[in-house]
């Protein structure tokens, strides 16, 4: 008996806004990520550059649309090259392929009644191509792809009306693809709103008087929309499975000082608040104090709590890239939802971008999540962003990526032996694409190299890296040969 169960879903993961391109073709409307410009590393004010904070910023970006560098608009042109790319995924032996549907490709403004047929037809072609190779699509409904119009007119998810717009969109694609897609996710990394309100919820914080009130009210609307999408999916597609998706932020205490232990526990709780609602079906009691002390009042409509309780997800999916260190010392204590920790873990090495590499942390996370929720788990993002060098003979020897993935897959196998029910594993950016956090192309994750730089120069030619054949063998042996 091997460690990985028969039927384990090996594959790779992408997002429409990072690899489709064709932002102004096929009737597609603008999305929130279409407005994010590339900022060179030396000019960045923050670790990440993906927020738009005010109407003034948005108006300037719209005015710069013709001359600025907006990498997520061009992606890597999957829109025109999907057949070539899917053939490469099939050659690797993918059992599943995670992709997202671009909401504004289906409803350009987000609040229309009638969908855009050109957009629907595009995904029909993609799903048919996957079906040809026996690859199961795993489809995210909302992966940082909020139609820009919903930001401009409603300030995103702060407005309750977005629940109806999202449910209408979800029902439209469920009905259209009910014979082609059985695995779905509602919101990608739903907790992103806590530190990036624009990307997570389409909020321009310059419009709101109380930032955290706006964030958590928007999140409540997303929780309700997610639960209603779960209900619709089960009704429209018998036998379907629909999950939630969390950016998992495993935190270790800096020392065995009880203050540090408590700080790590609170970071953990604030991260798992989101899945508590979506998997368990209710708000956890530990958030009551946080809401009270931060003057947050969640406005609920009659029936909301019942909807959340009755329509929980079938499985929990998550991204895992790194772990963090929490301290209870004044001035060092991590803020709730903080994605990056300033405290270094001396026992871990870091990537080119400073993300600390912790394979054993993945096993810890899998065990913790399964102990807490007792539902199937699915790792839908994990990978190493790195600078890749093309040798004179055209080869790309990414042994560092192989080492990273080998160590993480090995710990996944150990967690399965520990009793964790794990459905599958889709590595992030199975083909090089635009970075979500920095809009860089040079931060590469893929098994397939794409000839394009941070400024859009290049042929877009696809080249297999050394890791391509390695992962192909991992899948062929169901994880037995690493």
From TrEMBL:
Gene Ontology MF, one: 6-phospho-beta-glucosidase activity
Residues annotated as the enzyme's active site: 381
SUPFAM superfamilies: (Trans)glycosidases
GO cellular component: cytosol
Top-level taxon: Bacteria
GO BP annotation list: carbohydrate catabolic process
Keywords: Glycosidase, Hydrolase
InterPro entries documented for this protein: GH, GH_1_N_CS, Glyco_hydro_1, Glyco_hydro_1_AS
E.C. numbers: 3.2.1.86
Family classification: Belongs to the glycosyl hydrolase 1 family.
Protein name, per record: 6-phospho-beta-glucosidase
Encoding gene per record: ascB
């Amino acid at each position: 008996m091997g460690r990985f169960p028969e039927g384990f879903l090996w594959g790779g993961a992408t997002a429409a806004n990072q690899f489709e391109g064709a932002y102004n073709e096929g009737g597609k409307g603008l999305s929130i990520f279409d407005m994010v410009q590339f900022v060179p590393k030396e000019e960045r004010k923050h670790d990440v550059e993906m927020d738009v904070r005010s109407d003034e910023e948005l108006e300037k970006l719209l005015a710069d649309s013709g001359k600025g560098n907006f990498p997520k608009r061009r992606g890597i042109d999957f829109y025109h090259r999907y057949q070539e790319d899917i053939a490469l995924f099939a050659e690797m032996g993918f059992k599943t392929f995670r992709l997202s549907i671009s909401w504004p490709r289906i409803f350009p403004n987000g609040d229309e009644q009638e969908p855009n047929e050109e957009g629907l037809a595009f995904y029909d072609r993609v799903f048919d191509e996957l079906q040809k190779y026996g690859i199961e699509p795993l489809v995210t409904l909302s992966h940082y792809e909020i139609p820009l119009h919903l930001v401009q007119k409603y300030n995103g998810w702060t407005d309750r009306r977005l629940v109806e717009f999202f449910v209408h969109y979800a029902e439209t694609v469920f009905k259209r693809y009910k014979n082609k897609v059985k695995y779905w996710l509602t919101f990608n990394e739903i907790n992103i709103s806590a530190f990036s309100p624009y990307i997570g919820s389409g909020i321009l914080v310059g419009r709101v008087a109380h930032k955290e009130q706006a964030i958590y009210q928007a999140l409540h609307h997303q929780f309700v929309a997610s639960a209603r999408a779960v209900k619709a999916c089960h009704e429209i597609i018998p036998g379907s499975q629909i999950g939630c998706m969390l950016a998992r932020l495993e935190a270790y205490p800096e020392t065995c000082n009880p203050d540090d232990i408590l700080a790590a526990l609170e970071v953990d709780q604030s991260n798992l608040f989101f899945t508590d609602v979506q998997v368990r079906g209710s708000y956890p009691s530990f958030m009551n104090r946080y809401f009270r002390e931060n003057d947050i009042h969640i406005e609920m409509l009659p029936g909301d709590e019942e909807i959340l309780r009755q329509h929980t997800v079938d499985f929990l999916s998550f991204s895992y890239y790194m772990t963090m260190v929490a301290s209870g010392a004044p001035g060092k204590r991590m803020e709730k939802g903080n994605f990056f920790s300033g405290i270094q873990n001396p026992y871990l090495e870091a990537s080119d971008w400073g993300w600390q590499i912790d394979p054993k942390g993945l096993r810890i996370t899998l065990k913790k999540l399964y102990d807490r929720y007792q539902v199937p788990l699915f790792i839908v993002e994990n990978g190493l962003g790195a600078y890749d060098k093309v040798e004179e003979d055209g080869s790309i020897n990414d042994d560092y990526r192989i080492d990273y993935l080998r160590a993480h897959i090995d710990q996944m196998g150990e967690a399965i032996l520990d009793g964790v029910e794990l459905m599958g594993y889709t590595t992030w950016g199975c083909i090089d694409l635009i970075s979500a956090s920095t809009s860089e192309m040079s931060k590469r994750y893929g098994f397939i190299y794409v000839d394009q730089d941070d400024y859009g120069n290049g042929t877009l030619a696809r080249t297999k890296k050394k890791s391509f054949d390695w992962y192909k063998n991992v899948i062929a042996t169901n994880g037995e040969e690493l």
